[in-house]
């Protein structure tokens, strides 16, 4: 689906976002936009502020200032459950699989928030490994299966804007490729995705656009074509 750049307001518009952990400031005025249907990555080194940006959008980091507009409405004053009900789902870096629960239980535990979420049957069809492991315990899964489960779990709640925090982290290349295919498929289904990544090859393979974060600020933004034409530009930021 071609991007409609003529539409007035981006789906998500962040301006001058600052965030703190106690006294320590982690974000120093982050600003970027995500249009409906786009797959945008946040890239940058360890500690740059990528996860904090996602947690600030979600209201999990509460000590934040600036503006985070979603569908034109500011999320800064809202609490996490209210933000989720606006249609934003978050898949955390640590995945958050409940070890004592089965795959099926993990999948069906979160409430449905917005109409139109995937049915349990849709999910098991989209993620065949999960169907095969439905009654296995959370910890019996491989890292890749846990990541699939963490992503699948947020598709049930009906949210159409997904925040995915380093889904490729710690996984073997063949599994990373499979996760990439799944994420690409979600984009094709019309989801809007903000993806945190340090794996440049993974980011390049699936994203439309990239936002580079350094020391809690956006230092560069480029389309996937611009990245392809000048990979060195981004490698400098990542220090690779
Ligand atoms: N829970 C926390 N408490 C205090 N400082 C934190 C916490 N989480 C992250 N930080 C700090 O905030 C900064 C940004 O971290 P983070 O957003 O996790 O980076 P990234 O996801 O880009 O690796 C880092 O300096 C990190 O040490
Ligand atoms: Mg992180």
Structural class by helix and strand composition? alpha/beta
Radius of gyration of CA atoms, rounded to a whole number: 17 Å
Total count of strands: 10
Taking pLDDT < 50 over at least 5 consecutive residues as the criterion, the unreliable ranges are none
CATH class term: Alpha Beta
* Share of helix, binned: 25-40%
* Bound compounds: adenosine-5'-diphosphate, magnesium ion
CATH architecture: 3-Layer(aba) Sandwich
> What integer is the average pLDDT?
93
- The N- to C-terminal Cα distance equals 33 Å
The helix count comes to: 10
Major beta sheet summary: 6 strands, mixed
In the residues, how many domains can be counted?
1
How much beta, percentage-wise?
25-35%
Q: From N to C, what is the helix and strand string?
A: EEEHEEHEHHHHEHEHEEHH
CATH superfamily annotation? P-loop containing nucleotide triphosphate hydrolases
Shape: globular
Keywords:
10 helices, 240 residues, alpha/beta, six-stranded mixed β-sheet, 26% strand, binds magnesium ion, 10 strands, Rossmann fold, binds adenosine-5'-diphosphate
What does this structure look like?
By secondary structure, the protein is an alpha/beta fold. It has a single domain (12-93, 150-238), classed as 3-Layer(aba) Sandwich (Rossmann fold), CATH 3.40.50. Helix content is 34%, strand content 26%. The strands form two sheets. Strands 6-7-8-3-9-10 form a six-stranded mixed sheet, sandwiched between helices. A four-stranded antiparallel sheet has the order 2-1-4-5, covered by helices on one side. Strand 7, helix 7 and strand 8 form a beta-alpha-beta unit.
